Every structure is written in structure tokens, then in C-alpha cells.
Amino acid sequence: MGAVTMEKSTSLDRLKALDKLSSLIVQLQEAQELCNHPSRAEMILRWLGNKLRSLDDARTDAGSWDVFSSCLRLLPTQKIASILGSGNLQEILTLTCAERGLSERTLQAMVATWDLLSQQSLTATGAAIKALLKVDGASAARVCGHWYQHVYAVLQMEDSASRIDTATSLLHLGLQLWDLRRRSPSDDGAFSDHCLLPACQLVVLLKRTRPVGAKRKRGAEARDSSCGILRALESVIVQHSILPARSVFTSTRQRQDGHKKRLTPNQTEQGVEKLLQPLKDPSICYEAAPALMDMALSAVSTPTPGLRSREAPWIETLFDALLDLLDGDSKEQKCTTIADMLRHIRLRKIPFSTQKLATLATSVLADASGHRDSGRTLIAEVVSFNAGVLTETSIARLLFDAVGGWQASCRTPDTKMIRERIIAPVIEAFAQKQQLSELLELWHQQLISIKNDQSARIWLAIVSDMSEALASTSAHDVATSALARYSGLLQQLADLQESLTGNGVADRLRSDLVLLRALLQGLRSNSHSASIQQALESTRKRLWSLGEINKGQVPASCVSEVWQLLALVLELWFPPYCAAQSDASAVKDTLENLVGNDLFEKAVNDCQSGSDSSLAAQVLVGIICTLARSYNTSNKCTTTVDRAIEALCKRPATLMSYPQLITGLSLEQIGIVLQAVLSAQDEDSQCLLSLLSYSLPHSEKFDTVLEEMPMHLLVAFSPSTLAPSRRTKMIRRLLDRAHANDAGLLPASRLAFIIDLLAYPVEALDVSKTASELCDYIRRAIVPAGHEDREVAASCEEYARALALVQPSVQAVLRKTSAKTGRDYQELSAGAVATIASLEQGQTKIDSISSPTLLAVCVLIATIEETAEVASAYAHRNKQFVNMLMDDLVTSLENAMPTLEHDPDPESFSAVAEGLVNLPESILALSGSKRKKFESRIVTSAEQVLQTELKSPHHVQVASFRLLCKYDPTSDATTRATSVLSRDLDARSSGAVYRTWEDYFDNKFGPEEISRIITSGPPQHYAMAQLHLYMVRKIRGQLFEATTDPSTIDLWHYLLRTLLKTQDLRIRGEALQNMAVLLKARGFVLNQYSLEQTLQSLHSLLTSSSHIEAFFPKVCKILNVLINQYRTKLQGRFHLVTMIFQALLSKLLEDASSASVRLRDYHARLVAKLLELFCKPIWVRSTATSLVDASREAQKYAGQFVQHILHHYCATVLSSTPTEEVRLAIRPGIFAVIEAMEAYDETSVRSLSAAMNGNERAILRMVVQDWRQFGKWEGS
């Protein structure tokens, strides 16, 4: 036999030649290919270890670690330990982590290798591997520090969405390596030196992307969760950096206080200075300081004020140390960092030195221009800590100057934030210290020095806060003295001692006016307005004297404040003044003087301007006009007031505050108001519209308003506020031919308003005339788009809206008069005939234009036939007329067919169909021999809509179905209804089909229909299932009385088959609903076999179905009836009931990743009630003696079986994560289970505990403890 030629080298030769390959990548690929046997894996691992120790490229290449992992999978633990022992593994890790720029791929490969070693160390033979992973603390700190740096570099390149997932997978190595170190006293110092800086950077980075509302978790679950990795990292920092520094601080403080404390031997002290040594770089400290402070506050639990006070010195020391590191050039960053640290301290309720807060505030406020956004935030935090710090006069002056500077320098000043978080608390602090005089003076100076509108905004916004502070009883004397002090300039101007054009007078005047307004508001709130009546009188006179100075030319900066102060003074002064006057003429003279003043004329002109003071002028004018309208003033005064009211009419939002003015508006003024309201279309305008509709009807001029007001403005009035006679007038105007072409009111709006008016009583309404006019209006006005030759042309949408209101409007008119005479009916019938006659004369061809008219006539005739006692003599009961009407209807229906698919107005088809449906049988019988022909044409058109593939709208399909049910009674309506319902109709159309089908089958089927349903098998469509439900409800009474097939039991088993065989959730829901209907029916009784089949079917449904929440309540409802009514038959079959309860609990409590996340506490309450009903029956029928408690006996019997329910509950809670709401909701039912077990045997719970494992036993212990604390009744 010849020698065999080797064309390829052996694996041993290839292994030996690895180093001879051209590149490292090729070498690793060759090694990966050869790594498929333990012997080769051993050689590769030794070769790879040398490479990793000697070559930088090998350490940074992810392929090296992939080959490393492949070798570990093939080698036994002892062999791995021998190869990687003697520090080889740690040297490889140290050298690799010390490399720069490791990619994420390399880091992930290293994590995979580490995970393999960790898993092997947990096996029975993994002690050697575990020894490999243990290193000294210093080495572990160096490796972890480098590792954290690499992870931080990778996370900075990740987007925020994937950052948490990446951190969770990568940081696991560093945390586990540190946990496996060999402990030593120097671990804390090594960690702070090497790991503190990168760990803090990671904490800051991870906090930015932490999920909102994330909850803490315990144990290993916390380490694997997205939020748990952050908690674990913070825990390591706290344990090895913060707590040692705190311990040193505490021991030093105790030695200083004279307490001796023995230090732990060989323990290196680590103070605050050494702790913060790695954070000396200000750029790093800006972000790390708040995170470090937050961790320091979380390191020790401080639930009580005493513990928080003890922790305060350590927190202040740490704060000072961090503050010393923030000496960079960026003032904004420094302020932001300090504010964040203060916020963390404040949220933990740790006391803080008032002196330190004052120093911080002073340093920021002294250089406010260099601290804008961050300065405001820092001052807000200081105020949140202690606003009293800023009440010192020098600091308060700096604060007010800084606020003014911030407001003036910012393009978009945050006035709300400054007011709510800074100024308002400071004002409250001044009030508490009773230093309001100093505060008023500071405010006054700021108002004088206002530079622009932005800086003025904040000082004007705090008027309400100042008035609230001045409203206190203790501030009355301060307010009174300030009122006199700040009225001095007004008095000087009134005495002509000062001029409005003087230097700085305008600024001083504005400041005084603002302060006076705040003072008066505060005194009014404190009910001191009566005591300052003299001061109010003086202030009013001084203000009105401004109108006599320089002809009322008030400086522009003061105009708004003058209007506001005048309005406030008049509100406070006028009522006591009127009460004190015995002669009304004095009051009228005063009002005429007010109206005749130049300031009032200027205010009226200002109302119509777009200036900033316009709103204040409107309020002042509204107050004066309201006062003047209450008295019979002179003609000149009345004319001036009317002109002022007319100016207010153009400002509906202000006029809404003065309802007394609305009732006296003239016709012209009402038109102006309504026009302004309808053009504005905002919330205030809608409120005014409602107010007008309630106020104007009480006006004497309202009848004239109704006659002359444009039609489109009439709809603004609510029908409920109108008198019956006025409603009648409005209906007549709406139907009048003279107003038919009013473009402002569309036909649909007109009909809707008529229906609203007819919903209330009307007076002297001629029903027959109104109905005739309504039909005439419908014929003239409601036409589809594209027919410009008619009087009104509407859009498609408007035409559909109007068409839908034809039938309701006609019925509303005919129902208005309850007692109609024969003459009324004759006139109505004649009107219907005349309408059709005019329709025939007006056009030679019936088309969609006539659809509204035909529908109106059909509704009119149907109503007459329904309500009239003797209808044979009426005009519409004429064979020729009926044939003409039917021919028009059918022709219009057929004309709409060819273009139905692309018809923009398919409502015409529906309108004609609705008219045909409304025609009563008494009218159809008059058509004689032509009836069959008409019916044939109608059926053909309707079937063409349903049978063809036309994409007709839903309402067209519904109309066709209704026509078939009326004009083709021999057809299979159920099949047609199923076909229509299977086309995904909307809810409204589906409801119309169901109602039509119910009316059709009202008296047309019996038990034979149920037999056909049972033999046909489970329904294939949801629509069919719903139709079956109606049949069952309709026929169930007959089934109970029937002696032949089908019986109710046959129907019950048909429902059970449907429940199990179909997969459609909606059909299952309908089957369950059918079962619930039968169970509640009187006379329905389940036999033993049916009861067992029902229990088994419910259990199968619960265990095999997803989306159980769709029919969970229905299953509970059926089980409730079974337990209530069939408890006696259930005895001996309680094991089946127990299985159902276990299935219900499984679906309710299973893990959140499954369908039970959609089951809420409502479902848990249903199960709890069922458990209570099963375990604690309130009443049980019993034939035993009355001395035996039947309910107690039933509870004992149930106690034999419910231990399985409790065991299942404990096991399910252990393996899932039910919400707290669900557990609380189901707790009463679990308590009932425990009570039943105790009633049966007092040792039942202990026996169950013995059969459980340790984890289940712990859950049981908690449940029983809750029962003893909250559920067990001990008696008295």
C-alpha cells in the first residue's frame, strides 16, 4: 500500500507556525479556526497569554479576547488555573486596562471573557478560578480606575437612549472585580486615588439619562437593572470614599470636644482634603461636586430633625471643601454648581449656617452682572433655605439692584420665577420681621430708577404680594403712615407746588401711584377701608386734579397707574359716600363731575387705543359708566356715558365684567358687541356671548333687537332665556322668504336653531303654516354643491349637515302642538301635496336636488298617519298622488345609482332611502297594482349597492339594508345583516343595522330559529355572534316553556362549544355574555353534567387564552352566579372551582411582561369578591335545624380545598411582580381564604407552611401577618 500524500499541514504544525503568519489579525483568525479541541485550546491559550503580555496591539484587539473566550469554553477549570495562575491573568488585565483608547467592541469582548471566568468560578471545581480573580486592593483600584475611564469614554460617544444599556453591560466587570478583591486597610485610600474621579464622572453621566420615576430594587435584581447599576456605583463611592472621610471628621470633632476614641489598628485616616484630592481640576469639579454632595447626603439615614442636626457640621465641612475647589474663571458654572449642592441639602432638610448663606448671597449679588441665569438660581436656592437672610438692609438693597439688572439685561426675563421664588418669599420674611417700612422704601427707589419696560415688569408684578403682606393686622399702622407719606407728591401737584414736566417728577409720581395702589389694596383686604374714607376722598380729589393740570396731559409712563389707582379709589370710596348722602342730587352732581373731567375723556380715548394702558382705562370707564347708569343724570352726562359704553362695546372681554351695562345697550351697541364677539372667537368672547344671551332678553329694547338684528347674530341667544312669544318671532324670521338669502346663516345652522327653539314652549305657533313654510324652505335652500342655479349653494359638508336635520326639524314642528284638530291635519296634508306639486312644476327631471324635499314630505305624511285619528279624507291619501310620490322617490333613488361610487353627495341617496323607509304601510297600500313594481325597483337598487364592490359610504350601505328589510320581507335578513356588519362599519352605522334587524325580527322567529343556529355551529363572524345574542334574549322565554327541542341545555352546550372552538376574542365575549343572560333568566337550571362542563370550559379558556383582560370580568360574572345559585351542586366538585381560582390568580398576578399588565385593581377586586363569596357565604339555604349555622358549615367545607388557592397565590407572587394596587385589592379575598382554613382546622396554615419551600413560606408568613393585623376579627 503506497504512502498517502499530505496536501495540508497538520494542526500541530499550524499551531507552531502561528507567529510566522503575516499579521496579528491573520494569526488570531488562524487560532480561532484551530480552537476546537481542549489540547489545541491549551496551546492557543498559552500562546495568547504571551501575546497579551507582550504586544499592545494584541491587548487592544477584540479578536484576542474572542479567542481567549473560546479557549476558556473548552478547558477544564484546573487547567485554566494552571495556565493563568501566578499573576498572569492579573498582569494581562492590568496591562490591557492601562492602554488608551480601548474600543467598545474590545470592552465587550473583555466583559464576555470575565463572565465566563465568573461562571466557572461558581461551579463545584471553581475554587481555583475564584482565586485567580482575587487581587489585592491596590491592584484592583488601578484596574477599576482605568476601566471606569474607558467606560466613560465609550458612554460619551453613545446617544442617551442606549447609554444606560451600555453602562449596565460594561460596568459589571469593574464592580465585580472590586468586590472580589482581597480586603486591606488601604482599600479606601487606593479607591479614592484611582477610582473616585472616573466613578464620579460616570455617576454624573448616568444621572442625565436616568429614567424618570425609576424605583429602587433589591439584591441581584438591582445590579442588573438600568437604574441599579447607578445605585451600585454610588454605593461603592459612598463606602470607600465618603464614609471614611466622614468617620475621620467625626473622630476629629470628638477629640476636639474632649472625647477619646480608639482608632482601629492599621487603618489609614482619610480626611476631606485627601478625599477631594483627585477633583482639583475645576472643570471636573463643576459636575462632580453636586453628585458627590448628593451621595454624601444619602450615605447616612436622617429621618428625624435630631439626626439631621448632627449631620449638619459634616455636610457644611464638605460643602466648604467643595467650594474651595470651585475657583475657576467661569462664574456661571460656579453658581450653578453651588445652587445644585444647596438644592440637594435643602431637599434632605439638613440645617445650614445662616452666615454661610448670607455670604454666598452677598458674593453673588455684589457682582450681579457676572451672574445672570445661574445667579438667579443660586439666590432662589438661598431664599428657599432661609429668606430671612436677605432681609438685612444692605443685602436687600443689593438684591433689589440685582433683580433690576437681571430684568433689564435679559431679552426674555423670567419674571414669574423671580417673583415666585425670590421676591415673594423675601416680602413674607420682611413682614414676619415687621420691617415693611424698609421694604416699601426699597421698592419705591427701584420704581423710581426703572430704566425700561422689562425692568418695570417685575416691580409692577409684585403689587399683589405687597398688598397681601400689608393686609395683616400688625401692618395697619405702617400702611396708614405710608399712605400719608407717599401722597405728598400728589398733594404738591394739586397745590401747583410741583409741575408734571419737572425733572424726575414723572418717575416719582409713577412710583408713588404704584405704592398707593398696593397700600389701598392691603387696607381693603384688612377691612380698614372705612377708617381711611377721608384719605380716599383726598386721594380722589388729588387724582382728578391731574385733569385740570396741563389739560389732562398725564405723562405716558404714569397713565396706566393713574387709571388703576383711580378705579381702586372709586371702588373703595363711592359706596360709603353714597350711604352717607341723604340727597341723591349730591351723588348725581359728583358723578357728572367725574364724567365731565378731562381725565375721563382721556380714559375713553385710551380704551380704543392699542397702548399698554388701554386695559386699565377700560376698567376705569366700566366702573364710572356703571355708577352713572344707576342715576338719572343730565343729557350731556348721559351722552358722554353712551359714547364711553360704545367704546367698551368694542372690547367684549372687559364688558363681560359689567353685566349692568349690557341690559341697557342700544340696538346699535348690541350689534357692535355681537360683531366683536363673533369675530374674536376666543374663550372670553364665548363667555360674553353666553352672558349677553342671558342679559339682553331682559332689556326693554329686545323686541326691536329681534326685528332688526341680522339673522346670523340671532343664533347667539340661548332659547332658554327667551320668552315663548319671542321664540315664535324668531322661528318666523328664520323661515321667512325675505331672510332666506342671508349669507351669514347657513341652512344647517338655521335648522339646528329652529330645533333648539322648538325644544322650549312657544306661543301662538301655527303648526300647519310653520310646517308648510319649513318644507318650502327645505325645497328652496337645501341643495347640494354644484347647483348654482338654485337660491342657495352649499358645500358638500354643509349639505350633509343640513340634510341630517331635515327629519328632526319637521318632527319638532309637528310635535309642538299636542292637541291638533282635523282641520290642522287637513292643512298639513294639503301642504304636503302642494310641496310635491311645486316640485313637479319646477323641474322636468327628478334628481338629487329634490331629495331633502321628498324626505320632508315623507316625514310629514308619516307623522299625520301616525297621529291622526281618521286620515281617509286627507289630500295625501290620493292614489294618483301616492303613485306620483313613489315614482319620484324611486326615480331619484335610481338616478343616484350610476354615480354613487364617485358621487360627492351620497347623502342624497340616504335621504331618499330614509323617506321610503318612513312611508307607512297605509300609504303604500294606496299605490295599488304599481306597488310590486315600485318594490321591485327599490329592491334592485338596494341589492346593487350591497352586492357590488362599490366603495359606498357606511350610511349608504345602512340605508340599502333598511330598504331591503322593509320592501323585501321574504329575504334572509340575518345573512344580509352579517354581510353588512362584516364591512368594518363605524359604531353609528353598526348600531343602525342592529336596530333595523331587531325591528325586522321582532315577531318573526321562534324556537326553530334557535335550532338552526345550534345546528349551524359556532359563528364565524363577530356580527353573527351579536345577532345570535339578540335571538337568545328574544326567544329565551319561549325556550323555557317549550316541551320540544331545542332545550335551553342544548343552547348552553352550543355556547360552550363556541367558547372553546373560536379564537376571536369578540366572539368569545359574546358567548360569555349569552351565558350570563341565560344564567340570570328565571327558570333556567343547569344539570350536573352541564355544570361540570361549564367549569372545565372556563378553566380551559383562562389557561389557553391570551389577552384575557378582554373577557376577564365576564368570566367572574358567570362564576359569581354559579357560586351563588349552584353551591349545593358544586359540593364534590370544589376541586374544579379551585382550579378556576388558580387560573384567575395566575392571569392577575403573572409577570408584567405578559398580558396581565393590562389587568388592573378593578379585576383584582372582582376576584377578591369571588373568593369572599366562595369562602364566606353570607346566606346558604339549609334544611337542617335552625341551631346550625349553615354559612359557617359552608365555610368549613370550603376550607378543605382553599389551601391550594393560598399556596398558588404565594408561589405566583414569588415568581412575578404584581403592582401594589393589585395586591391591596385582592387582599380581602386572601383573608377570606385564611379564615376558611382556620374554620376548618386551626392547624391548616401550619400544615400548608410545612409543605412549602423557604421562599413560599416567607410570602405566606407576610400574608398571615397582614391578616392578623388587618383582617382577623378578635371579638370583644
Automatic annotation (TrEMBL):
This is Nucleolar 27S pre-rRNA processing Urb2/Npa2 C-terminal domain-containing protein. One of its GO terms (biological process) is ribosome biogenesis. Residues 1071-1275 form the Nucleolar 27S pre-rRNA processing Urb2/Npa2 C-terminal domain. Residues 249-269 are annotated as: Disordered. It comes from Cercospora zeae-maydis SCOH1-5. InterPro entries: ARM-type_fold, Ribosome_Biogenesis_Reg, Urb2/Npa2_C. It comes from the Eukaryota. PANTHER family: UNHEALTHY RIBOSOME BIOGENESIS PROTEIN 2 HOMOLOG. GO terms for cellular component: nucleolus. It holds the Pfam family Urb2.
